[in-house]
Amino acid sequence: MRIKTLSYIDKTTGWELQRLSFDQLTLLVGASGVGKTRILKSILDVRRVAKGASLNGISWYIEFLTTGGRKYTWEGEFEDKGFSVENTFGFNDEDEKEKPRIDSERVYINDELVIDRNIDGIFFNGKKTVKLSKNESAVFLLREEEQIQEAQREFDKVIFDDNTSDINRFAFDDEVEEKLEKYRSIKTIRDSNEDVKLKLYFIYKNQKKSFEDIAQAFIDVFPYVEGVKVEPLQHNGKHVPLFLREMPFIQIKEKGIEQWIPETRMSSGMLRTLMHIAELYLCADSSLILIDEFENSLGINCIDELAQTIVSAERGLQFIITSHHPYIINNIKHTDWKIVTRKGGAVVARNASDFNFDKSKHKAFTQLINLDIYSEGVES
């Protein structure tokens, strides 16, 4: 999926993202608290609605391209039922039994109206459908229809990394051996919805050359590492609990150290770097990758390598990234920057072209950090 434009309103909080366009690579920059992370979460909210969630008081407009080249425009609006536990705290409240209804919704494919929803019902290709749930999006309800199915598949390609997930969690799966037979080619591994650690195991077992490419990219960042593997832990029969003996673990071999180091003993920066590299290599073609505060948990050597990997990414990948780190900002073309500011609850992301930045990266960065709207973030 490649997002072209997005706008979003949360009526329960008064927060509004004004129409924002995205490029193949978009770096959101600005002061803390202006709404950079919230922009990423707005995209995730739209994905949730596409998957059947009912989000109180929001309205959205999104235009995106599919892998097949179709342009979808999808807009809609939920009623505002007032205070919502989910909107405020981010989790469901079982006591909130009455979900908000959708008051309006439209879907265009290549500018042709396909879904038109209003108080009278849902019209699909000009014909009224049978009575369907008023609390779930038509994109979800009609997901088996060929025209809508394509859009549904695209939302599966939205990947979010906010650097807060537990990267040390075990990728345990009691069907892992059966899945090894199912996911044998690069394409089937990439197109699966499996955990990235399991994907890494599948490619380690079934596509050695491709795994070596990932391992070498990691070793380039950490030259004191001489090997990477994904295998069950070695044991002498009694040192490893029985339930762990078939579980694949990421392990690295450092120069001068005899024992392999399991993922649970790796530094968070090393493991996160490997996960970033693996995610970039093993995600589906035309994936949309959202990364919040890209520099978190990464050393400067990791930032260097991964920033260059993202800038040169292929396979139709789209990146929307937030960062405060000078190295990242300075090494991404200023034409890919969006300077985020807000006035009250209204968030605006401006193009770098609005500020006449110098063509030199260093001078452009210096101009950026000296802008009042960059350092303060709030417009009067």
TrEMBL record:
Residues 25-330 form the ATPase AAA-type core domain. Signal peptide: none annotated. InterPro entries: ATPase_AAA_core (IPR003959), Bact_Antivir_Def_Nuclease (IPR051396), P-loop_NTPase (IPR027417), RecF-like (IPR014555). SUPFAM superfamilies: P-loop containing nucleoside triphosphate hydrolases. GO terms for molecular function: ATP binding; ATP hydrolysis activity. Gene3D superfamilies: P-loop containing nucleotide triphosphate hydrolases. This is Putative ATPase.
